[in-house]
Design brief:
Length: 127
């Protein structure tokens, strides 16, 4: 029963409220629409599109998530962040990434499509 509930929730879009949200790892089987500051203390994995209007901090970001081995047929994977994006590990995007604010990644950035930032982009390699 729990597995069915998790699968149903994964198929629905993720919508975060305007209040500060903090959680462990998040895996989304569809698209994510975030309207506020979000801190993920683990992996943020999204199979579909991401639209964010607030800061996002994650330990690790991957797209697509485990739901798709590659981009879904006939669908682009667009990631749009309208606020600061901070990733405490590596960041892998299989699609286009658009950020209207600074990007800080404490690890390598890898993008399979275009990467466009309207603010400073900082990539910090581990020493």
């Amino acid at each position: 029963m729990r597995t069915i509930l998790v699968l149903i929730m994964a198929a629905l879009p993720l919508v975060a409220s305007a209040q500060l949200s903090t959680s462990g790892s998040i895996a989304v089987g569809g698209s994510a629409h975030v309207k506020g500051p979000v801190t993920v203390l683990g992996t943020l994995s999204v199979d579909g599109n991401v639209y964010a209007k607030g800061p996002i901090t994650a330990a690790w970001f991957a797209s697509p998530g485990r739901g798709y081995p590659s981009a879904p047929p006939g669908r682009s994977l667009l990631k749009v962040f309208n606020g600061p994006l901070t990733v405490q590990g590596s960041m892998v995007v299989h699609g286009d990434l658009v950020v209207d604010g600074p990007i800080t990644v404490n690890g390598p950035i890898e993008a399979g499509g275009g990467l466009d930032a309207d603010g400073p982009m900082v990539e910090r390699q581990a020493r």
